[in-house]
Amino acid sequence: MDCKTLEIFKLIIPGLIAIIGNMIFYWIIKGQIDKSIERHKVSYSGVFKEKIEIYKGLLQKVFELKIKIQKYQYLGQQEMGYEIKTDFNVFISYYLVNQPYLSKNMICNLKTIVNELQGCFDDFFMHNSLQNTQGIPNDKRIELLNKFFESGNKFKTNHPFKDLEDTIIAEMRKDLQIDKY
């Protein structure tokens, strides 16, 4: 070999070694990154699906509670009242257990809607329980009746329930990034 060819090899060999080394490094790093991305996609899709199920469950339980309370307002059956009390406990337990998936704002809104629903239910329960009881002063009866109608009007106007439900739904859409599509 002549001197010129050796000089060319001296220049090409380090370049080839660098290219081969970079390709090996690229395949190793790319493999690790691809595995990491895949793990992230799998875990994120599982969390995303879980959040959707939780949100659906929350809305379903809120709507079921509202319907049962409205029925109770007119029917006033004591067994139904005890069933609703149990439903409140189930709902509260449900959102407390799922707190890691919910924002603080969402939890605050859920507490507010539970308080509003419980307040209405308590007014209905007191009125229905004491309606046929003798010996209650007229001013107390009028107060119970006014609370009964006041709570009934909340259901007729759907206020504040509609506002709270809309806030919860907006929070869910934001969290699930639905409005981006």
Your description of this structure?
86% of the residues lie in helices and 0% in strands. It has 5 helices and no strands. Helix 1 (3-75) runs parallel beside helix 3 (104-130) and helix 2 (78-97) runs antiparallel to helix 3.
Short description:
With 181 residues, the chain is an all-alpha fold. The protein is built from five helices and no strands. Helix 1 (3-75) packs parallel to helix 3 (104-130) and helix 1 packs antiparallel against helix 5.
List key phrases describing it.
about 180 residues, mainly alpha, rod-shaped
Would you spell out the secondary-structure blueprint of this structure?
Elements: H1 3-75, H2 78-97, H3 104-130, H4 138-157, H5 161-176
Helix pairs in contact: 1-2, 1-3, 1-5, 2-3, 3-4, 3-5
